[in-house]
Amino acid sequence: MQKKRNYQLTDVELKDVEKAMRHDKRPEVRQKAQALHLLHLGQPVAHVARMMAVSRKTIYKWHDAWLADGIDGLARREGSGRRRKATPEYERLLEKTLETDPTELGYEFTVWTVDRLCEYLDDETGIRLSDRTLTNTLKRLGYVYRRPKSDLTHLHDPKVMEMAELHLETLKKKPKTGSLSSSLWTKRQ
Known about the structure:
Arc Repressor Mutant, subunit A
């Protein structure tokens, strides 16, 4: 059975926590400070955990981090969280692949899509990323998605284009016919 914890803060600690809640630039510190403040106000751990959308165990960890290191203990530590599946080698191959025309690699298509990149990189590295993870990796690396533009000017017949432009010019110069002077407004009688 877990021993009873004391969540009461001294006046100085309370000021530090309130300052962190309102002014700290790190969102995780603001969130954890708010949880500590709620605990100080007498809210049960289970209630605070529900409000913060975390487990009770997480609230205990936050409190322990606070006791150990104060406000700095609430900051995200380097290397915490889930590790990226895309290794630096994977990212280098991704960038190299994006710079390479797919036809040079034996493909019949000429444009890389996220699905095609996932398949190719999975075959080359053995690392399978989801479409969303690959898209996020591309954004993090500074790539922007854009649709390829279709250019059909090579299919235009110059004579037909010239005739169409002349016809358009004559249509622009012709006076309008018909009476369009009717008004939507009417007088009361």
